[in-house]
Amino acid sequence: MELHVNNSTYEVDVEPEMPLLWVIRDILNLKGTKFACGIAQCGACTVHIDGEPVRSCSYPVFAAEGKLITTIEGLSADASHPVQQAWIKHQVPQCGYCQSGQIMAAVSLLNKKPRPTDADINAAMTNICRCGTYKRIRDAIHDVAGSNAEFYQA
Amino acid sequence: MNKPATNLSRRKFLITSTAISGGFALGLQIPGTSAQQEGQGNNINIWVEIHADDAVTIKYARTEMGQGSLTSAPQLVADELDADWNQVTIEYVDVNEHIRNDRQWGAMVTVGSQTIRLSQDYLRRAGASARAMLVAAAAQAWDVPAEEIAVANGTISHEASGHRSGFGAMAELAATMPVPETVNLKDPADWHIIGQPFPRVDIPASVDGSQVYGIDAELPGMVYAAVAQCPVFGGTVRSFDASRARDRRGIIDIFGIDDGLALVVVADNWWRAKQALDEISIDWDTKGNENVSNESIKAFFQKNLDAPDGAPMPNNAGDADAAIAEADQVIEADYYTPYLSHSPMEPMGATVHIQEDRVDVWTSTQAPVASLTSVAEALGIPEEDVYLHRVQAGGGFGRRGGSTDYSRQAALVAQAMPLGTPVKLLWTREEDMQHDFYRPLAMYRIKAGLDADGYIKGWRARVASGSILNQMRGVPLSNGFDGISCEGFTRLPYQIEDQFQDFRQCATHVPLGFWRTVGWSQTPFAREQFIDELAAAAGEDPYYFRLKHMAEDELSRHILEKVAEAIGWDEAPPKGHFRGIATTEPYGSFTAAVVELSVNDAGVINIHRVIQGIDPGHVVNPDNVKAQLEGATVWAISAAMWGEITIEEGRVQESNFHNYRLMRLAEMPVMETVLAPTGGFWGGVGEPGQAPILPALCNAIYAATGTRVRSLPLQHHGFTLA
Ligand code: FES
Ligand code: FES
User: Fold this and answer.
1) What is the ipTM of this complex?
2) Which domain holds residue B171?
3) Other C-beta atoms within 10 Å of B13: how many?
4) Domain tally for chain A?
């Protein structure tokens, strides 16, 4: 089947029910998308399909056929995407393992709502970070949006 | 390389310098390493390299797993060197070279919040020694007295003669200079790199997917292994039926390893291996542990809580019973903390590639030497032939510190494959959660008296807990006492003349391990709540009640005052808000916290503010310390609200994040960090932040509801988090 990933087209021969995550990581060898739970709980495996955030560990590859798949590697060629830059500015990552997924979720939120409220952020950012970087994720998203981070001005 | 020049400094550091092409490298043997003990001086351990092009390379021996010391440890070297931070690059120490050189880089493990506090002295000495040799070289080249030479931001200069030079131009000559007898370390007032919030060097790779973790190893011809271990700890495969699984696409082999401790499916793709594994019916020999349950474990711990004798703690003093007998009031309470799983986001796994003359290993580990050794042992080959590649760990929190189960398994699978076949072994989340080395379950009983003036008179405490040292590491306990399980009790910040505390080890078949903040992750739940119980019985404010018992403990008082000041303790909180406070002394640091919250009639907790304070003595990278406190708060709240690993029929009931809940962003409270370094000592920062949060939270819940929560998690008491 044909997959469109990060502006490239790949021909892959896999079982249709293989989760997109394993195709991306082990067949296409794009390692930035991570495996952590395998059951759509944590979001470490988040990619975009036609711009929508999808937990690729629980998304069969056949459903992605013909659609535009974007992984963390496809966000920018040089980490220049504003969300990536904000992540560096706010020193968000700790171990970093969840952050590809966090960034993909944040980009999708900001694409839809350029000035998200705290409630918008709460609703969209449901990925787990075991290192506990949530405060900085929120700060970085507000920074990108240029909105007021009133939530943190206690 | 030239033959190294060596010298023994006053503090018994054997300093070594070597010429490298156009530059020089400097190392120092660390007291306590095997080479130092044997008096050998010919092997080299390099901590800093100065290159002809002015580049400075600083070596890092520990692991980066989010705690930030890949950046902060080199800051210590660079400061004493008076380098420009921009000319510094950081490289991991090669583990194989470490093994071949008599383990001269000292401790490589990343545990116990130790990296800064236990290596700061030799890292700063390495920087200062390299600086001294550059100065000596410049003095010779310019024919001026060394004392008149200044070094700042990577430039060596002599004001009177107008000479100036970068490090690179002097490096070759510096390599021929005698190694200094002694070096003076800077006064903290002169630090210009230590104490700066430099961005962490590993962060850019974490935002574009290029950070490499153990799970990301990729080699030509690689095969993948999925594993199943007996759900009842210690059980083995009696028999299995893989008839359906074998015919699935991509399956290469199915077999048991390690005398049946695990069943393995090897395939050309990990998902295929895992799918096949799910189709195999396995008959497990559960070795008699199939009836162990949380109830049976709790009953066993309860017996130990009630038993007359325990192993006494070293700080016992006076006559606790007599003091309690004379007290005005006597308070007693029992507390319970459950087993917990580490659950770092990156699951366990390792890649092993066996070739004729060498074995290569990629794995996320906090203990690279132990991981390397586990592979050598599994394969029965010398450690010198094993090459362990350093990668970032996707969280460690203690799970990857010396527990070498997964690297051993990968080696055994690779051994079973045709020579030269790289094997990537990966656990599922379920396998990780059900085969962890858990934070021990523990029970605490504390009893104390109060006199008419509200002072504590007599204190008795019993700790009934597992011993990680004994059970996981096989370390025999001296007189049955384990100080790690009793952290928080072995040195009370409160002045109590008569105290008697003891420990009883409770061993079950549940594997135990070091879990972020270890004993300090649970003992403060009992100790700091009990102090609140005493304050309530005395009718006193819990903050001032603590202070009045801390007259002799200046540092504990200091950090407690800082957090109280930050929240404005003396002013009443907004209507409906309540506060809890707690203080702790973990890993060489002092941490205290205030939690402000409200609780509605349905038990929904709304945390409005968390103040988290630390005095680590010296702060190397303030932004990183803040990040660690923020993360530790999330960690503690997850454990408090939902954390429990439950045993039924000998096995763990929780399996993934749907039934082992972790905090999410929407639940993150407003949090303020207070860095209050008082200087003069070096404490840890990765773990200490967690210690006071749990009791501060529970003390606030008591203030809000009158309910004293003596067992965790809070979800069992009808509480939820807004
Ligand atoms: S790995 Fe896909 S949601 Fe966790
Ligand atoms: S940064 Fe480690 S899990 Fe999020």
Assistant:
1) 0.95
2) 32-208
3) 22
4) 2
Among the partner-chain residues B203, B270, B345, the one whose CB lies closest to the CB of A88 is: B203
Distance between A16 CA and the closest CA of chain B, angstroms: 12
Interface of A with B in 40-59 (CB under 8 A): 41-42, 44
| Number of other residues whose CB lies within 10 A of the CB of residue B37 | 11
Which residues, at least 6 apart from B187, have a Cβ–Cβ distance to it below 8 Å?
Answer: none
Residue A153 maps to a domain: no
CB contact under 8 A, B666 and A87: no
Q: Is residue A53 part of a domain?
A: yes
> Are B401 and B445 contained in the same domain?
no
Indicate the top mutation candidate among A37, A97, A100, A104 to test ligand 2's pocket, ranked by most ligand atoms within 8 A of CB.
A97
pLDDT by residue, tens only, chain A of 154 residues: 999 999 999 999 999 999 999 999 999 999 999 999 999 999 999 999 999 999 999 999 999 999 999 999 999 999 999 999 999 999 999 999 999 999 999 999 999 999 999 999 999 999 999 999 999 999 999 999 985 444 333 3
The structure tokens listed for B317 are: 């003093």
Give SS3 for B255.
strand
Of A18, A36, A100, the CB nearest to B429: A36
Nearest-Cα residue of chain B relative to residue A30: B209
Tell me whether residues B346 and A36 touch, CB distance under 8 A: yes
Interface contact flag, B657 A42, Cβ < 8 Å? yes
Residues in the ligand 2 pocket, defined by CB under 6 Å: A 93-99, 129-131, 133; B 66, 345, 395
Residue of A8, A91, A20 lying closest to B207 (CA atoms): A91
State whether B470 and B604 are in the same domain. Answer: yes
Q: How far apart are the first and last CA of chain A?
A: 53
Q: What CATH number has the domain bearing residue A31?
A: 3.10.20.30
Q: Does A130 reach chain B within 8 Å, measured CB to CB?
A: yes
Cβ-Cβ contacts under 8 Å, B208 against chain A: 32, 72-73, 75-76, 78-79, 84
Q: What is the pTM of this model?
A: 0.94
The answer to whether the CB of B58 falls within 8 A of the CB of B346 is: no
CB B60 within 8 A of CB B70: yes
Instruction: Could you list the beta-strand ranges (E) of B76-172.
Output: 88-92, 149-152, 155-158, 163-166
Query: Exposure pattern of B505-527 as b/e (b: 16+ CB <10 Å)?
Result: bbebbbbbbbbbbbbbbbbbbbb
Picking from A88, A95, A152, the nearest residue to B204 by CB comes out as A88
- In the block, tokens 């000479």 appear at B163
